[in-house]
């Protein structure tokens, strides 16, 4: 079985479960988003026979677990402490293979969601309608409409219409999977408005067009300013992170494997031939800022760097407040635990 220590009460990262039927694409999503595997390589991924897998990413802002859901899993199996797991979960992603007959997947989705909701009403339920690269645009829309309708009808039939499901069209062959993941993670960050505010102030004072706060390992953006997100800009920023980390891995590490490919010193400037500039800087161990700006604005690099310094400091303060709150909560829950034997609070996800 899968056991989480009581530490989940003090977890500082968003905890996300990934579920779905066999071959729906869970491992591929995890490999592509968190381990830089190229989409084509996933063709050779072997199906896992284990009941569940526990994949926690230590290098990412996101705490991520995959929970396989082969047909035979039994919620009544006493060795399977699903209550404990759902209680510590911020978001449950359910992957539906859109290229396959999805009736069985929808039945599983319904069972899973209704179980999870009983344990924890605060879980965000996110449905990835996956592998849509194989569908035409019309077919995509029709599939989404159909899945949406059936899933909600099932909930209504069970008088569970309170449960809200969000739907995303995803594929590992383009950026849609990163975009969807970004949205899922952002919902779990209570300080999101603060982060957005800081980004707005930073870009408007620095003449920057767009800025993304990225989880560097996964290229999920955990926040951006309020200007609309243009897919191409987002993709460029993702590509920049890849380039910077790759170069740093090859030429930036100290001899004998010392140091890390991403640290306090990490910074990069890329000038494109269309008078735009990409500017990347380290913010925290897991997070980096990627800015998209005009060449003219970059002439005032001193100002940008000064503003960045203030921005970075503010972000660290947001984190410190969080850490202190957690430290208090940890002490508190330790005291509680000596009195009570069952944890009863639901942690919402935290910075
Ligand atoms: N076309 C397409 N194929 C995908 C996509 N994502 C995953 N696949 C393919 O789907 C197959 C199954 O993917 P897995 O990641 O092994 O699925 P899984 O859900 O982890 O499967 P189990 O380990 O059996 O539970 C692989 O051949 C992948 O290449 C996608 O977005 N588009």
TrEMBL record:
<dbReference type="GO" id="GO:1904263">
    <property type="term" value="P:positive regulation of TORC1 signaling"/>
</dbReference>
<dbReference type="GO" id="GO:0005829">
    <property type="term" value="C:cytosol"/>
</dbReference>
<dbReference type="InterPro" id="IPR027417">
    <property type="entry name" value="P-loop_NTPase"/>
</dbReference>
<dbReference type="Pfam" id="PF04670">
    <property type="entry name" value="Gtr1_RagA"/>
</dbReference>
<keyword id="KW-0342">GTP-binding</keyword>
<dbReference type="InterPro" id="IPR039400">
    <property type="entry name" value="RagC/D"/>
</dbReference>
<keyword id="KW-0963">Cytoplasm</keyword>
<dbReference type="GO" id="GO:0003924">
    <property type="term" value="F:GTPase activity"/>
</dbReference>
<dbReference type="GO" id="GO:0019003">
    <property type="term" value="F:GDP binding"/>
</dbReference>
<comment type="similarity">
    <text>Belongs to the GTR/RAG GTP-binding protein family.</text>
</comment>
<keyword id="KW-0547">Nucleotide-binding</keyword>
<dbReference type="GO" id="GO:0010507">
    <property type="term" value="P:negative regulation of autophagy"/>
</dbReference>
<dbReference type="GO" id="GO:0046982">
    <property type="term" value="F:protein heterodimerization activity"/>
</dbReference>
<dbReference type="GO" id="GO:0034198">
    <property type="term" value="P:cellular response to amino acid starvation"/>
</dbReference>
<protein>
    <recommendedName>
        <fullName>Ras-related GTP-binding protein</fullName>
    </recommendedName>
</protein>
<keyword id="KW-0539">Nucleus</keyword>
<dbReference type="GO" id="GO:0005525">
    <property type="term" value="F:GTP binding"/>
</dbReference>
<keyword id="KW-0378">Hydrolase</keyword>
<dbReference type="GO" id="GO:0071230">
    <property type="term" value="P:cellular response to amino acid stimulus"/>
</dbReference>
<dbReference type="GO" id="GO:1990131">
    <property type="term" value="C:Gtr1-Gtr2 GTPase complex"/>
</dbReference>
<dbReference type="GO" id="GO:0005765">
    <property type="term" value="C:lysosomal membrane"/>
</dbReference>
<dbReference type="InterPro" id="IPR006762">
    <property type="entry name" value="Gtr1_RagA"/>
</dbReference>
<dbReference type="GO" id="GO:0060090">
    <property type="term" value="F:molecular adaptor activity"/>
</dbReference>
<dbReference type="GO" id="GO:0051020">
    <property type="term" value="F:GTPase binding"/>
</dbReference>
<dbReference type="GO" id="GO:0005654">
    <property type="term" value="C:nucleoplasm"/>
</dbReference>
<comment type="function">
    <text>Guanine nucleotide-binding protein that plays a crucial role in the cellular response to amino acid availability through regulation of the mTORC1 signaling cascade.</text>
</comment>
<keyword id="KW-0458">Lysosome</keyword>
<keyword id="KW-0472">Membrane</keyword>
């Amino acid at each position: 079985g899968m056991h989480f220590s009581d530490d989940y009460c003090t977890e500082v990262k968003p905890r996300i479960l990934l579920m779905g039927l066999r071959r729906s694409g869970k491992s591929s999503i995890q490999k592509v988003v968190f381990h830089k595997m190229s989409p084509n390589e996933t063709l050779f991924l072997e199906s896992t026979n284990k009941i569940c897998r526990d994949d926690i990413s230590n290098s990412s802002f996101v705490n991520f677990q995959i929970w396989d859901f082969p047909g035979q899993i039994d919620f009544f199996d006493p060795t399977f402490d699903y209550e404990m797991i759902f209680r510590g979960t911020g978001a449950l992603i359910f992957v539906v293979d859109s290229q396959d007959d999805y009736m069985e997947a929808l039945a599983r989705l319904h069972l899973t969601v209704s179980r999870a909701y009983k344990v924890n009403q605060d879980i965000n339920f996110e449905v990835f309608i996956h592998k849509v690269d194989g569908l035409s645009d019309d077919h995509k829309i029709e599939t989404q409409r159909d899945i949406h309708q059936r899933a909600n009808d099932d909930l209504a039939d069970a008088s569970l219409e309170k449960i809200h499901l969000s739907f995303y069209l995803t594929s590992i062959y383009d950026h849609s999977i990163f975009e969807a993941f970004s949205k899922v993670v952002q919902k779990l960050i209570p300080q999101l408005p603060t982060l957005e505010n800081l980004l707005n102030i930073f870009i408007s004072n620095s003449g920057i067009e767009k800025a993304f706060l990225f989880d560097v390992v996964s290229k999920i953006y955990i926040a951006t300013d309020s200007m609309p997100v243009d897919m191409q800009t987002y993709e460029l920023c993702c590509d920049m992170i890849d380039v910077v980390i790759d170069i740093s891995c090859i030429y930036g590490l100290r001899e004998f494997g010392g140091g890390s490919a991403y640290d306090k010193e990490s910074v990069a400037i890329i000038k494109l031939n269309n008078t735009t500039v990409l500017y990347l800087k380290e913010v925290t161990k897991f997070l980096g800022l990627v800015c998209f700006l005009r060449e003219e604005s970059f002439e005032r690099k001193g100002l940008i760097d000064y503003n960045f310094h203030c921005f970075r400091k503010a972000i660290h303060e947001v984190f410190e407040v969080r850490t202190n709150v957690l430290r208090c909560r940890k002490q508190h829950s330790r005291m509680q635990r000596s009195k009570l034997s069952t944890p009863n609070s639901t942690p919402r996800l935290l910075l």
